[in-house]
Design brief:
- The relative contact order is 0.21.
- It is built from three helices and 22 strands.
- The protein is globular, with a radius of gyration of 19 Å.
- It has two domains: 149 residues, Jelly Rolls; 109 residues, Jelly Rolls, CATH 2.60.120.380.
- The protein has a six-stranded antiparallel β-sheet, with no helix packed on it. Strands 3, 4, 6, 8, 11 and 13 form a six-stranded mixed β-sheet that branches. Strands 5-7-12-9-10 form a five-stranded mixed β-sheet.
- The structure holds calcium ion (3 copies).
- One calcium ion binds next to strand 18.
């Protein structure tokens, strides 16, 4: 699957292509690359994590930014710089319109992105992609006239592109737009304390929604050979999650690797390393099945 938009130019270029990672961490022998399913992946609240969540910014205090055309991403200047947290408003008009924004995000931050149809005819589509598509990206879709909230754990300090349009304009076979295709995007930073998972330990958890993210903290006191397994389909009572697992170095904010499916036909995720240096790491669990209803999983870190 591809997030390729109908438009040519900037967005089309940045939204395609796989993400590679260092060889140090592999997903079962292959280089740890995201697969195309990751593109539809992403994110809302992990139930267990909700208690420790606190919106840093109340939405009523956020600045509101109105879109400014041209912002279709056909050239590097046709994109609107915004500072988040903020509320961004606009309209998908005329037919086939795509609106692109660029925001600087910091590795380690957790954001919620809510996209709402403020016009009855919009079927909201939201894509969030690092400017070079060098780390896994995110997509959220809401039903016509409705809203969806997606979480994003930022895996790279960089400029990120935020793309808003109607889902029909992404498929590329029938284009829509007009004055009744208004939207509002609310970007908020959320504070969350990652749950610790020990070397040799297993943590059971559940996401609070199909677009939620779970964050876990792993600390290593010495270079370690290990495997990190996320089990959802492999639970004794399988859940609906199609997981995606990322590991980020908490100490320097660098993204290390992401795995979506550990093997063909197995949608659970796994990452492993022969020599992961001592340090502090964040393990990020996402779901790429937007229709998931049962959202339980467990994460296990085992020594090789
Ligand atoms: Ca517009
Ligand atoms: Ca536009
Ligand atoms: Ca998967």
């Amino acid at each position: 699957m591809s997030l390729l938009l109908r438009t040519t130019g900037l967005f089309a270029i940045t939204l395609v292509g796989a993400c590679s990672s260092p060889q140090a961490l592999t997903d079962g022998g292959k280089p740890a690359t995201t697969n195309d399913a990751a593109i539809d992946g992403a994110v809302v609240d992990a139930g267990a994590d909700a208690a420790v969540d606190a919106a840093v910014d109340a939405s009523t205090l956020l600045p509101t930014i109105a879109e400014k055309e041209p912002n279709d991403g056909k050239t590097t200047t046709e994109i609107q710089d915004v500072t988040v947290p903020a509320i961004v408003t606009g309209v998908i008009d005329p037919v086939g319109d795509v609106d692109g924004f660029r925001a600087q995000l910091t590795s380690g931050d957790l954001f919620t992105w809510k996209v709402e149809a403020t016009g009855a005819d919009l079927t909201p589509y939201l894509g969030i992609v690092e400017k070079d598509d060098s780390v896994p990206h995110f997509v959220a879709r809401a039903p016509k006239g409705q809203s969806v909230e997606m979480e994003q754990f930022v895996t790279k300090s960089s400029a990120w592109h935020i793309i808003v349009t109607d889902s029909s304009n992404v498929k590329g076979n029938s284009f829509v737009g007009g004055p009744t295709f208004g939207y509002k995007v609310t970007a908020q930073r959320v504070a969350r304390v990652p749950k610790s998972v020990a070397l040799g330990g297993t943590e059971a958890a559940a996401l609070g929604g199909p677009y939620a993210v779970g964050v876990f903290a792993l600390s290593l006191t010495s270079t370690t050979a290990l495997d990190i397994n996320v089990r959802a389909k492999r639970l004794s009572t399988p859940s609906d999650l199609d997981t995606r697992l990322s590991i980020v170095n908490k100490d320097d904010g660098s993204w290390i690797a992401t795995n979506d499916d550990m093997a063909s036909g197995q949608s659970d995720s796994k990452l492993g390393a022969d020599a992961l240096p001592a340090g502090n790491y964040v393990l990020v669990v996402e779901n790429v099945n937007p229709d998931a209803k049962i959202l339980t999983f467990e994460i296990a870190v085992t020594k090789r």
